[in-house]
Specification:
Layout: E1 2-10, H1 16-27, E2 34-45, E3 53-62, H2 65-71, E4 77-79, E5 93-95, E6 100-102, H3 106-117, E7 123-125, H4 131-144, H5 178-188, H6 205-221, E8 225-227, E9 232-238, E10 241-247, E11 251-254, E12 258-260, H7 267-275, E13 280-282, E14 285-294, H8 295-303, E15 318-320, E16 326-333, E17 336-340, E18 350-354, E19 362-371, H9 373-376, H10 382-398, E20 402-406, H11 407-411, E21 426-427, E22 430-432, H12 441-457, E23 467-472, E24 479-481, E25 494-496, H13 507-524, E26 525-527
Helix pairs in contact: 3-6, 3-13, 5-13
Length: 531
């Protein structure tokens, strides 16, 4: 098989036939010599606004590959082989009790999937509802402000990613092809096969919900079991090893292997783990706002006159302030919505969400500022308390509605009284506010300096009418559960993983971390079914 890089294709015609024709031209061969062609990567090259085009990397199977390789000395043409994900050999230590997984977000689901696929019959405990019921509960919260603290945008089957843009891109090094396994599993469970090769793949909240349901059904077919509306409330530890767990303060389940895929919002669980002497450390994270712009403005900035031929554009912006604080865009949602993502009564937090088509009028992104132990303290749970204080201020300022402000009013430190040209696109009720009353001065100063800088990169980014909202405080977990080379924490048999445990950031990296943990369990144990 031969890899062909930088196959240049027009943005007005990127059909499979045209990709094939351009590949033949680059290889200098006739169509009769090409047996198979596979698209491996697709990206938009917009570095030159006068020559925006698609760039493809393809694998081809030819009649005489050696001959073609010998006559081509281009670095864009090389021999390659099929990539695949392979699980390692099972361990020898006997495991007579099913592995228990806490949480069914990306990390928990993929840990469960790999374990089930290899015959380990995992039991998955989820404090929230299954997707079908969770959707109704979240819609009711957005419409009526009636919050279910165990099933919401943060908690429930699929995790926080279920109500997000469903972005799947990651820069994680992946020699073991775990990312490929994640994407192939998503496709098997209903996602568009294009995610296998797009440079910035996404599923969208609507399609992701169906994918999660299909993943659940696949795990059940492989003898996994799910229990919903069930919360981990305590651990029983003997001689430094997990012996059993307590669910809902009453039910006891014995276990030798416990996977903690609890997500970044499980603050009550973090507190319980800390009380049980699990080794937890605080770590830096970031907080800030969400900003909405007209999507067509972002498109024009990124693509110029060719914008109408291309999908809605994204952006990624970074800046370091004069006081050495990082300001950056995060979880950018083209054609999306800002959503009320609260999970605790009396606290308010926001996030971004897009449907698969990304076809709303607005682009939105978190603009966040790094905070460290110098800001919130050195105790393991101090970061959680810091975020909670901001979320309480956000809730109190507008009685639970999303605080909203025009950018010009934020700069002038005054409450907004009316909207400008940007249409407000929210899931959940909103109210005008002065967001300076929520965030500390050092964060407000950093946001002003950072967004002024971003305006130099994207013309109009600091437009007066841009809509900002608060507070974006759960960009990543403010804690890390320390684990060793075996991926266990200081208690034998407990495997922290995913975003909540401090080892991932987003759907794909969380899923990959769940796979890593499943691999470690399989390498150590051989499951013996004694049921």
């Amino acid at each position: 098989m031969i890899k062909v890089r930088q196959v240049k294709v027009s943005i007005t015609n990127n059909s499979e036939e045209e990709i094939r024709n351009r590949t033949l031209k680059k290889l200098k061969i006739d169509d009769s010599e090409l047996l198979k062609i596979f698209i491996r990567k697709e990206s938009i090259d917009a570095r030159d606004k006068e020559d925006i085009h698609y760039s493809y990397e393809v694998d081809v199977v030819l009649k005489n590959e050696e001959k073609v390789l010998n006559r081509n000395n281009s670095s864009d043409i090389s021999a390659t082989s099929e990539e695949s994900y392979v699980i390692k050999k099972k361990g020898s230590e006997k495991l007579s009790k099913r592995p228990v997984i806490i949480g069914s977000g990306p990390a928990g689901l993929f840990a469960a999937y790999i374990l089930a696929e290899n015959g380990y019959r995992p039991l998955i405990i989820e404090r929230g509802e299954r997707v079908e019921e969770r959707i109704k509960t979240v819609e009711k919260f957005w419409n009526e402000q009636i919050l279910n603290e165990n099933s919401n945008v943060a908690f429930g089957e699929g995790g926080a990613g279920t109500f997000s843009d469903g972005k799947l891109n990651t820069l994680v090094s992946d020699k073991e092809n775990r990312k490929l396994k994640v994407l192939q599993t998503f496709v098997k469970c209903g996602a568009d096969s294009k995610i296998l090769y797009q440079s910035k793949p996404h599923i969208g909240t609507d399609m992701l919900r169906d994918v999660v349901i299909n993943m659940r059904n696949e795990i059940i077919k492989m003898n996994g079991e799910f229990r919903y509306n069930t919360t981990l409330t305590d651990l029983k530890i003997e001689e430094g090893k997990i012996k059993s767990i307590i669910l809902d303060n009453s039910q006891k389940i014995d276990c030798d292997v416990l996977v903690l895929a609890i997500g970044h919002s499980a603050r009550d669980t973090f507190q319980m783990l800390y009380n049980r002497n699990i080794n937890i450390q605080s770590k830096p994270f970031a907080v800030g706002i969400r900003i909405q712009h007209p999507q067509n403005m972002i498109n024009y900035s990124q693509y110029g006159k060719e914008a109408s031929f291309l999908p809605n554009a994204s952006y990624k912006l970074t800046y370091t302030t004069k006081k050495n604080r990082g300001v950056y865009s995060f979880c950018m949602c083209p054609g999306g919505y800002v959503v009320n993502a609260s999970s605790q009564k009396g606290l308010l937090v926001i996030n971004g969400m897009s449907y698969n088509k990304r076809d709303s009028e607005n682009a939105n992104s978190a603009i966040i500022v790094t905070v460290t132990q110098d800001d919130f303290g050195n105790n393991p749970l101090d970061g959680l308390l810091y975020a909670e204080k901001l979320e309480k201020k956000s809730y109190d300022l507008t009685q639970g509605k999303i605080p909203v402000q025009l950018w010009k009013d934020f700069k002038e430190n005054r409450q907004t009284s009316c909207l400008g040209s940007v249409k407000p696109l929210f899931k959940g009720n909103y109210a005008f506010a002065n967001i300076n009353e929520i965030l500390p001065n050092y964060l407000c100063e950093a946001l002003r300096e950072g967004i002024d800088n971003f305006d130099k990169k994207i013309k109009g980014f600091a437009m007066d009418d841009a809509l900002i909202s608060a507070v974006e405080s759960r960009t990543s977990s403010p804690i890390r559960i320390v684990r060793d080379e075996s991926l266990m924490c200081n208690i034998l048999g407990i495997y922290p993983c995913g975003e909540g445990s401090g080892y991932a950031g987003g759907i794909t990296t969380s899923a990959i971390d769940g796979i890593k943990v499943a691999e470690k369990i399989i390498e150590k144990y051989n499951f013996i079914d004694i049921s």
